[in-house]
Amino acid sequence: MSDQIKFIVDNLNKEPFKKNYNLITFDSLEPMQLLQVLNDVLAEIDPKQVVDIREEMPEQTAKRMLSLLGILKYKPPGNATDMSTFRQGLVIGSKPVIYPVLHWLLQRTSELKKRAYLARFLIKLEVPNEFLQDETVADTNKQYEELMEAFKTLHKECEQLKTSGFSTAEIRKDISAMEEEKDQLIKRVERLKKRVETVQNHQRMLKIARQLRVEKEREEFLAQQKQEQKNQINEINTQINQLIEKKMMRNEPIEGKLSLYRQQASIISRKKEAKAEELQEAKEKLANLEREVSLKTNQTREFDGTEVLKGDEFKRYVSKLRSKSTVFKKKHQIIAEFKAEFGLLQRTEELLKQRHENIQHQLQTIEEKKGISGYSYTQEELERVSALKSEVDEMKGRTLDDMSEMVKKLNSLVSEKKSALAPVIKELRQLRQKCQELTQECDEKKSQYDSCAAGLESNRSKLEQEVRGLREECLQEESKYHYTNCMIKNLEVQLRRATDEMKAYVSSDQQEKRKALREQYTKNIAEQENLGKKLREKQKAVRESHGPNMKQAKMWRDFEQLMECKKQCFLKQQSQTSIGQVIQEGGEDRLIL
User: Fold this and answer.
1) Same-domain status, 15 and 102
2) How many distinct structural domains can be found in the chain?
3) Rounded CA gap, 145 and 139, in Å?
């Protein structure tokens, strides 16, 4: 248990909790404070748990924590009989219950954060089957399940991308390398510009080059447009061929089989012409590409004076560049490490200087309080004089007499300073001893104050809990009072209505009787019964006439079908008569010839 508590305290003192506990203060926490610590750890895992448990009912707190622990798949030690003990211990803030929970949570905080995040989207809401009979609810539920599956897929892809090795450091390195390459390209472009400026009429040549680039872009656009139009022409030809084939299929009994072969021959000839056009365009495109390659090669020779690498030479050049790039990245990484170390050392130097200045300022303040201002300055002077003495000893070119006189002066100055500072140093020792005694007394008073404050805090929390309970009881009583008043008013209204109804019912005035609810309801019931009787009679009549009516409707449909058949036969007879007349007229013409 002691190892468990030590682990909990160490983790609570780290980021992001920063509780500043020790074993004694943590073990002396009150149940409410211990529950708040557990709630803070749960809130770090799931931000929705950020709650002040003093403003929440104990049952609600236990229900909320048990729900989250169930989502996180925490299994309390023991069997089923201990589950009730676990719930009760969680409500009252029992240490044997909360300590294992804290130990389990703090061991796997990052893993539980991920699980709590996924639980918000992957815990399926169970919809009863009777509600799924509605199409809207069923469609919404289906869409909800599809979105859940899509979230699973996207989350897996995100995790794969995180573990795929594309770290931010490598991306930054690649970006810096690309920036350097960009700088090199800019420098190369500037060199090429300088070389071009030495050529005569370079402005005119640049203008012509721009026009050539614009024309090439326009040529590419026109070629693309031409290809699109050609695809449309091909689609239209296909549609025309299909229509012709359909027409031939319809007219085949009259025109004969030769027209089909003619049409197929025409289709094949069109396809042949289209393929010939495509072949010609491909040849033209190949010739254009060959011209562009030769042009680019000549331009490269003019600018760089080197040949274009081909085949194995280009591969060797690329491998050489890759090796150089690897060496460059390693050197760049070493330089970055040196820069980082330099920045760290520089920052350390600044902190040490600042710390030295603060110590000097504190030392001067203490000297002023103790009445020995200038002690440190005197000590520095002594050190400076000693350094000056060493420097003087090292100096050459002076005579022995001057050096001996300087030594005597320095010794006399040191002895004077020591004699002057002796009583001050003695007094400083006494003051240091007194300062230690006062510091010890201050620590004792502080510990007494902390213990007293902890007791008062516990009493305050108990009083606040009692006040909260009394307020809730007062609110409940107020709600009961208002509910009772509302019920009384409702009963009074119902009693008044009943009294008015009774007066109207026993009244001798017929008009007053008609206003009674009983009379109105009786009248409405009679009207509805009459209406129901009429509807039943109408239903009976419809049922009796249903069979004859359906028979008559069928006969009418048969009559329409018969008339349509006669119409089609009449039209067919007329068309055959006209064809026979045409054939007869053609035969007569041949006889005349």
Assistant:
1) yes
2) 3
3) 10
